[in-house]
Amino acid sequence: MKFIRTKGLVIKKVDFGEGDRIITVFSENFGKIDLLVKGIRKSKKRDQSSVDLLTLSNFTFYKKGDNFILNTIDPIDFFYDLKNDIEKLEITSYILSIINEIIFPGERKKEFFQRIEKALNFIIKNNTQVNFFMILKMMNWIVKNEGYRINISGEKYFNIAESSITDFDDEKVIPLKKELFEILSNIEKKALISNEIANIEILIDAIILYEKYINYHLDTKLNLKKHLFGGYSC
């Protein structure tokens, strides 16, 4: 029997049978994989927390038939600081949804995994405003990493289908406020320093625009509104 070992983050879980659970893990070396955890729901509480959502661990597993079976798990970080802070949990929940939508099973995305791991630790240390801007920069990186680029030839409208910010108005474009254009046009230049970043509402507007862009071009279903419990208007 060949055992496989990798670091990974639990991004989804589904109870299965009387005591089993299937966990979806975004792994460093193998992309997104589903692991069958036998008898975990009948095990002691500590073991259950090791396969809970948003737990970073080293996983050892093997393949049996069409399934990957978890053999051992060594927790690295439970991210309690994220789970116990509602605003940080909102942002983290959205990150998990991005992973679930963007990454296909078995698709190896080591650099993306490393960015996600850094992002989770970044969220712990920073305020909501800076964290929203970090999400925006991550989405910009995703767009570029998937081979797309938003061309800027104006500043009044965002044309999702044409991947451009333009001054030409038609039925396909989205009007841009001046503050929103400033964020979108300088996203790669701005550092993550809170006193240089726009207010939260503008950042959310920018994220939603990127979300619409990614959903259109990558056929995903990102939806920030589902993850905001704090009552932000968007």
UniProtKB/TrEMBL annotation:
Coiled coil: none annotated. Residues 1-68 form the DNA replication/recombination mediator RecO N-terminal domain. InterPro entries: DNA_rep/recomb_RecO_N (IPR022572), NA-bd_OB-fold (IPR012340), RecO (IPR003717). This is DNA repair protein RecO. Keywords: DNA damage, DNA recombination, DNA repair. Belongs to the RecO family. The keyword NAD does not apply. Involved in DNA repair and RecF pathway recombination. The keyword DNA repair applies.
